[in-house]
Design a protein that fits this description.
The complex is a heterotrimer of chains A (about 250), B (about 300) and C (about 290). Chain B is an all-alpha fold and about 300 residues long. Chain B contains 13 helices and 2 strands. Chain B is globular. A two-stranded antiparallel ribbon of chain C has the order 1-2. Chain C starts with a helix and ends in a 14-residue tail after the last helix. In chain C, helix 1 runs antiparallel to helix 8, helix 3 crosses helix 8 and helix 10 packs across helix 11. Chain C contains 11 helices and 2 strands; from the N terminus they run ααααββααααααα. Classes of the chains: A alpha/beta (about 250), B mainly alpha (about 300), C mainly alpha (about 290). The interface between B and C is large, with 43 and 47 residues.
Chain lengths: ~250, ~300, ~290
């Protein structure tokens, strides 16, 4: 069963139809790419999946269950994590705290437990911290754990966002332009990281990207959006040669 | 016990200390709402007045034991805090600030017309149960609980809401529920402070809780550095002492106070302590640790 | 009777609107709640009073002088207390600075002029006209007409002059305006000047109409006018006008038909109700955040 299904999704903002009848399916542990020119609706699609907007039309199902109308925090708790196109870190919190925040959706100690320091909250806090440090280590930021997030370099901030998303223990990870602003070396590292995550954490990864090289190399299936519509959907070799895609996006040479 | 301990302190300073203590409690409450969670509340005096009047009336008319009337006052304030928190679902920033101002004003006008509260004349003869030991015992307890709360997952979530609400949601934070929680806790402390105030000042009237009071409390939170417990303590202390210290210049007092606020904001816009939190002190230790380790490894 | 109250409400509302315009214009460009604005209104009332009683000027000269004087006060406040903070600090610290200015000015005037309530000499003898369905005083007519003229003048300036265009651009996107060569500092100063002049006019009119001028009159009026600006949609100029008029009418109607002891609470009650139903205010636009 596909882990994520979008069926005839449309989204209207005022008079603007940002998405029009988009349908797609993402299989478990697939690395799935969404590409398209700017304004094609890619981030809107992400926002719909993560519950920031409710779809005007159509249905979204995650693991067989409809998540239409679910609120963003509920969807996060279901196991869908994301990063943002314009990095959204908690700037005045430490690097460590940023990642610890990611664990919020999978922990439960409430007000009383936290304030009184009851065993459950102490245990959870320990677990949260350990997990956060492990994740920071994996993305290579452990030595900066007490820095304010706002002080990190751009590439480091992107990695931090990924670490935070992973703290949510997701089954589906949405990465919104993760390679933006990275140089070739960093991009290679990123690709390695994505493969690792998929293998070791059994993650399904949905990726919006502009870097064609990265996308063609790493994605197993790609959907192409243009003006809110899906114009192609298939493995990279197919998409590369699709007429409509070439016309709208890739340029004359394929 | 209190008399025994405090007999050595000059009554004038004793009074100041108690007022500082009460303001600390009030300011810590507002700190949770505005400093930590980032919800600008400019009506904190409203919660204070609810606590003050409720506890005073219970003490005076119903011969309620002090601890019970204090608690009741705080809970009434918390109830209203919860109610105020609900519109935060749809309101942001300055719109929310306006609602909090409006709420406090409505409460003030209500008490101006409230018979059992003495209307404009106010209530006099409130039994003076508040004393130094009580206040500072409460202050100590509240600081500890506050620190635990702010360093926990709940506190983290509050800070996250202040920093980036959408990102917080993406981490699984039900922002509405947490904002209401912040308002409830913050207003509970506001009501508690109000009750203590009433039973110390012996006499309360609606204009004690006017807009200026809310502003004074807000200044305390901002002055020390938002969201920081040590900052709030410093802010509350300084701004309680300032009018007293400025008594020297008598009628020009407020002139200096106003100018002081402007100058402080220009030179230290992030408050006196900036954004220092308790973990910043730990951070310095951590740095030393990292440096030490680097030494060992090289 | 109803129409009379309506007129009373519109008169009061016009003064709220004049003050609210200052709040909303400043907020639109620099996202600052200019807490000291209420004090500018108060100073305007005092300046007018001073000119009329001490210097024996006629009311129009007094009004004009009050407006000019307050323009300068407004620009001075911006220069001293707000500009140093721009871009460097959180909005909250600018707010606290504004509050500091407010306290300073209130106290200053209290020291200079004493805390007693003063009144304007009766300039317009209580001449009323019977319109058949209502009685309206000459003073009310003058206030309504003059306020309307000021507001129309503002609209014309905003839409037909270069500086007005610069103001509109700055309220859309301050940084872009700066990059486009607009002298942002001058636009902001100008905005403060215009807003202050309007508030001063309001102050003089209120001083005459209600026959009361005192150093703390700015606090409540400022609060209500800010509520009016929020009600109409903060940042929107027509919104400030609508908000002000609405609030004035609601307050007068509330006092006339409901209860007078809750007068001050009515304005805020209306505000809260409206915001619960329409969080962005009457004319405010819901800004969908780019995620």
């Amino acid at each position: 069963m596909p882990i994520l299904t979008l069926n005839e999704i449309s989204q209207e903002f005022g008079g603007l139809r940002a998405l029009d009848g988009v349908s797609l399916q993402v299989e478990e542990q697939q690395i799935y790419g969404i590409i398209g020119p700017n304004g094609a609706g890619k981030t809107t699609l992400f926002n719909l999946i993560t519950g920031i907007y409710d779809p005007s039309e159509g249905t979204i199902s995650f693991r067989g269950q409809s998540i239409n109308g679910a609120k963003a925090h509920q969807i996060a708790s279901l196991g869908i994590a994301r990063t943002f196109q314009n990095i959204r870190l908690f700037q005045k919190l430490s690097v460590l705290d940023n990642v610890r925040m990611g664990s919020f959706g999978v922990t439960r100690s409430g007000f009383w437990s936290s304030m009184l320091g009851l065993p459950r909250s102490r245990r959870e806090e320990k677990e949260i911290t350990e997990k956060a440090e492990q994740l920071l280590d994996r993305v290579g930021l452990l030595n900066k754990k007490m820095e304010y997030a706002v002080n990190l370099a751009y590439g480091e901030q992107r990695r931090l966002e990924i670490a935070r998303a992973l703290a949510l223990e997701p089954t589906l990870l949405l990465l919104d332009e993760p390679a933006a602003g990275m140089n070739a070396g960093e991009k290679a590292e990123l690709m390695g990281l994505i493969y690792e995550l998929r293998e070791q954490m059994k993650l399904t990864i949905l990726l919006v990207e502009h870097d064609m090289n990265l996308v063609m190399n790493i994605c197993e299936r790609i959907a192409v959006l243009d003006y809110g519509r899906k114009i192609a959907d298939g493995p990279p070799e197919e998409v590369k040669q699709d007429e409509r895609v070439i016309q709208s996006y890739l340029g004359v040479e394929a | 016990m209190d008399a025994y301990l405090t007999q050595y302190i000059d009554p004038y300073y004793l009074r100041l200390l108690i007022l500082i203590g009460i303001n600390i409690i009030l300011a810590l409450g507002l700190n949770i709402i505005t400093g930590v969670t980032g919800q600008l509340s400019m009506g904190h005096a409203g919660f204070m007045s609810l606590g003050a009047y409720t506890s005073a009336i219970l003490s005076m008319q119903f011969a309620c034991p002090f601890w019970l009337s204090l608690l009741a006052g705080a809970m009434v304030a918390a109830l209203f805090g919860c109610l105020i928190g609900i519109p935060t679902l749809r309101l942001e920033g300055d719109y929310l600030a306006m609602v909090t101002i409006g709420f406090a004003e409505i409460i003030r006008v209500f008490f101006l017309n409230f018979e059992p509260g003495g209307k404009a004349v106010g209530l006099a003869g409130i039994p003076q149960h508040t004393n130094f030991v009580l206040v500072f015992t409460l202050v100590a307890i509240i600081i500890v609980l506050n620190a635990k709360l702010l360093n926990s997952r709940i506190g983290r979530a509050w800070y996250a809401i202040r920093e980036n609400e959408i990102a917080a949601e993406s981490c699984g934070v039900d922002t509405t529920r947490l904002k209401v929680m912040a308002f409830t806790v913050g207003s509970f402390l506001g009501g508690l402070g109000g009750g203590l105030y009433a039973h110390y000042m012996y006499f309360i009237r609606p204009q004690d809780f006017a807009f200026m009071k809310s502003i004074e409390l807000l200044n305390m939170v901002v002055l020390g550095g938002m969201g920081s417990i040590p900052g709030t303590l410093i802010g509350a202390t300084i701004l309680t002492l300032a009018p007293e210290l400025l008594r020297v210049v008598a009628e020009y007092r407020l002139l200096f106070y106003g100018a002081l606020l402007v100058i402080l904001m220009i030179f230290r816009p992030n408050g006196l302590l900036g954004d220092v939190r308790i973990y910043d002190i730990r951070k310095r230790w951590a740095r030393k640790e990292v440096q030490a380790n680097a030494h060992i490894n090289s | 009777m109803f129409l009379e109250q309506l007129l009373n409400g519109l008169t009061l509302g016009s003064t709220y609107a004049l003050i609210a315009l200052g709040y909303t214009m400043v907020y639109g460009i620099v996202q600052l709640i200019n807490f000291a604005h209420g004090e500018v209104y108060m100073i305007g009332a005092f300046v007018g009073l001073f000119l009329v009683t001490v210097l024996g000027a006629n009311i129009f000269v007094a009004m004009a002088s009050a407006m000019v004087f307050c323009m300068m006060v407004g620009m001075l406040i911006e220069r001293v207390a707000y500009r140093p903070l721009r871009g460097k600090s959180t909005r909250l610290s600018a707010l606290i600075s504004a509050i500091g200015v407010s306290i300073f000015l209130q106290t200053l005037l209290a020291l200079l002029a004493g805390t007693n309530t003063r009144s304007y000499p009766s300039i317009f003898n209580s001449q009323t006209y019977d319109l058949g369905f209502a009685e309206v005083s000459l003073l009310q007519i003058l206030i309504l007409v003059f306020s309307a003229l000021l507001m129309i003048g503002l609209q014309v300036m905003i839409h037909k002059t270069r500086i007005g265009k610069a103001m509109r651009a700055s309220s859309q996107d301050l940084d872009a305006s700066y990059l486009m060569g607009i002298n942002v500092n001058r636009v902001i100063s100008f905005t403060f000047a215009v807003g202050s002049a309007l508030a001063a006019a309001g102050g003089v009119m209120v001083g005459i109409y209600y026959n009361a001028v005192w150093p703390y009159m700015g606090m409540m009026a400022g609060l209500k006018a800010f509520a009016a600006a929020v009600l109409g949609g903060i940042g929107s100029i027509p919104g400030a006008v609508i908000g002000g008029l609405t609030l004035g009418v609601m307050e007068i109607m509330g006092v006339a038909y409901l209860t007078s002891s809750y007068k001050d609470a009515i304005a805020f009650g209306v505000l809260i109700l409206v915001l619960l139903i329409r969080p962005q205010g009457i004319l405010g636009q819901k800004i969908t955040k780019k995620v």
